[in-house]
Amino acid sequence: MDDIRATLFSAGLRRLRAEALHDGEQVVWQGQPDGVAHMLMWRFLWWIGFPWLLLTVIAISNDWINEAAQPLMMLGVAMVAAPLVMLLQDLQTLYLITDRRTLILRTAWGRRTVSQTPFQAMDAVFEILDVGGGAGHLNFASGRSTRSPDTDHTGRHGFRCVRDAPRVRDILEAARAGKMRRSHPQEAAALATRNV
């Protein structure tokens, strides 16, 4: 299946996908977060970070600060880099809907993680939060640990910054209701390619 965006991280995601699927489990849809939309959600950090860095450089060059220079510079760099770090994490993330569950696969920073949610553990109604740029958060489970990067501060868990979230919600609802017909591997590959 060649529908994972071709990046340095594609091969690792494909291997993790093959390991995570159970025997006979059919992939109904797969996709990746919209990394640009996610990065732009946090662009306000650039509006703070770049002036912060500029003021820190001016303060250092005029000897206004001494011992505080390094922490202030590091804080400015962190604010500027944070949206780019999020983009890199999104490139190392893969969302799957199968005929049994949802999977969130991640190979970020050398750590391979698999987060699964069986259909029985999902909320009765799925929630979509629009984030702009044609992307949205599709929440399908609640009461999860807020430590997960796929869970918001209220414990709502799901696909973050997914493109065309209403269409993905419809696919997930159909899969949970058992309305997605089982197909041969070649047909499943073609279906997943169309849905990415």
List keywords for this structure.
alpha+beta; 196 residues; elongated; single chain; three-stranded antiparallel β-sheet; 6 helices
Task: Explain what the structure shows.
The chain is of the alpha+beta class. The chain is built from 6 helices and 7 strands. The strands form 2 sheets. A 4-stranded antiparallel beta sheet has the order 1-2-3-4, sandwiched between helices. A 3-stranded antiparallel beta sheet has the order 5-6-7. Helix 2 (35-41) runs antiparallel to helix 4 (69-91) and helix 3 (44-61) packs antiparallel against helix 4. It is elongated, with a radius of gyration of 20 Å. The N and C termini lie close together (11 Å).
SS field, number of helical segments: 6
Mean pLDDT: 84
Termini, distance in Å?
A: 11 Å
Number of strands: 7
Low-confidence runs: 182-196
Q: Which shape, going by the Cα principal axes?
A: elongated
Radius of gyration: 20 Å
Give a quick account of the main beta sheet: strands, pairing sense, barrel closure: 4 strands, antiparallel
Q: Secondary-structure element order, as H and E?
A: HEHHHEEEEEEHH
Strand content: 15-25%
> What would you call the structural class?
alpha+beta
Percent of residues in helices comes to: 40-55%
Strand order in the largest sheet: 1-2-3-4
Task: Give me the secondary-structure topology.
Elements lengths: L9 H11 L6 E5 L3 H7 L2 H18 L7 H23 L1 E6 L2 E6 L6 E6 L8 E6 L2 E7 L15 E7 L1 H12 L8 H11 L1
Antiparallel strand pairs: 1-2, 2-3, 3-4, 5-6, 6-7
Helix pairs in contact: 2-4, 3-4
